[in-house]
Amino acid sequence: MTTQYGDFQQLYHRHWLLPDFSEDQRQRLSTVRVVVVGAGGLGLPALLTLAMAGVGTVGIVDGDVVEVTNLHRQWLYTLEDVGQNKAVVAERHLRERNPFIAYHLHPEFLTPQNAEQILQGYDCVVDATDSLAARYLINDVAYMLGKPVAYAAVYQYEGEYGLLNVPLGAQELSPNYRDLYPSLPAASLVPSCREIGVWGPLPNIVGALQATELVKWIARIGTPLVGAIVRIDLRQQRWERFQLAKNPENPLYQPDWRFDPAQYQPVCCDIPEVGWEEVWNNEGELIDIREWWERQQCSAGGRHLPLSQMQWEQIPRDRPVYIYCAAGNRSARLVMLLRQRGWHNVWNVRGGIAALKWDQMGENSNDKV
């Protein structure tokens, strides 16, 4: 195929000048099939890296739509893309950059019902999701199918990436995600980017790096991060690498393990909660654990103790305490920890400030300050 700007040889010319890119390595890249699950902050730089490296077939799985709040980190999208399916939009932008490879679209979320069917059509998987349930699903199906997984995750200013479940020969696989984190944690203990934020450059750096490690493994270049994880902290510019080992607690290694779709639903903890009505109608202290900038945007009153700076002794034990955040997740985790440490009178405000009906407040917010 030739375009008005040239052919594929010109597009990859700078890669092919490298001494590591032999004809055999080019062939490996041009014939491999890679699926990227998630076309968001991690997925877009991973997709660009794979497409521009000359990976023969790229699959894109995502049932989400582009939102304005995505654009500060999902740099492939534009304002004109808002409201459209991410997989469809990503494929259009990628094809404009590299029309010489094949793109397969899956404009749907990966689920326990479709995961095996989708993943078995590819040689490698890139986990670019922001859902822990999806991450465990990808890991377990890839383990069953013997597919390597390029893994990555981000949290505010920090991220990690590596290659998991890589075939080592003789039916042996490198460690997988459950060797690192054996069980799916409770949904209330897992923060989301919507709630805690993420620094725009971070997923773009980490997503490109996770795909780069996969390209290295496919093309047999250098020393890929097989069974290893690199963690980075961009605030401190700190990079750490550690090797994974097989974990005997990994449920996939147990003889009675079976693929059960129900296990990929986030687990809920029994955390003591109250609604805003109960907060207003009962005596006690209201505490806002959001960060200062969140407090500036809106407030339901109460004492302000940002979670990032909190000390245990700041939480009273001698009276009821109602703790709230943006959506109820951070406060739920804190309440659970406090209860475990002997605070028996602390309660999570269900749904956080997002669940508050503002016409319900009146002067109530001042009662708990």
Secondary-structure topology with pairs:
Elements: E1 2-3, E2 6-7, H1 8-11, H2 13-16, H3 23-31, E3 33-37, H4 43-53, E4 57-61, H5 86-97, E5 102-106, H6 115-119, E6 124-127, H7 132-145, E7 149-155, E8 158-164, E9 167-169, E10 172-173, H8 177-180, H9 193-196, H10 201-219, E11 228-233, E12 238-243, E13 273-274, H11 276-281, E14 285-288, H12 292-297, E15 303-304, E16 321-324, H13 329-340, E17 346-349, H14 358-361, H15 364-367
Helix pairs in contact: 4-10
Low-confidence stretches: 358-363, 365-369
Domain tally: 2
Q: How would you write the strand order of the largest sheet? A: 5-4-3-6-7-8-11-12
Share of helix, binned: 25-40%
Which descriptors apply to this entry?
369 residues, alpha/beta, Oxidized Rhodanese, domain 1, eight-stranded mixed β-sheet, five-stranded parallel β-sheet, 15 helices, 17 strands, globular
How would you describe what is shown here?
Helices cover 32% and strands 19% of the residues. It has helices at 8-11, 13-16, 23-31, 43-53, 86-97, 115-119, 132-145, 177-180, 193-196, 201-219, 276-281, 292-297, 329-340, 358-361, 364-367, and strands at residues 2-3, 6-7, 33-37, 57-61, 102-106, 124-127, 149-155, 158-164, 167-169, 172-173, 228-233, 238-243, 273-274, 285-288, 303-304, 321-324, 346-349. The strands form 4 sheets. The protein has an 8-stranded mixed sheet, sandwiched between helices. A 5-stranded parallel sheet has the order 13-17-16-14-15. Residues 358-363 and 365-369 have low confidence and may be disordered.
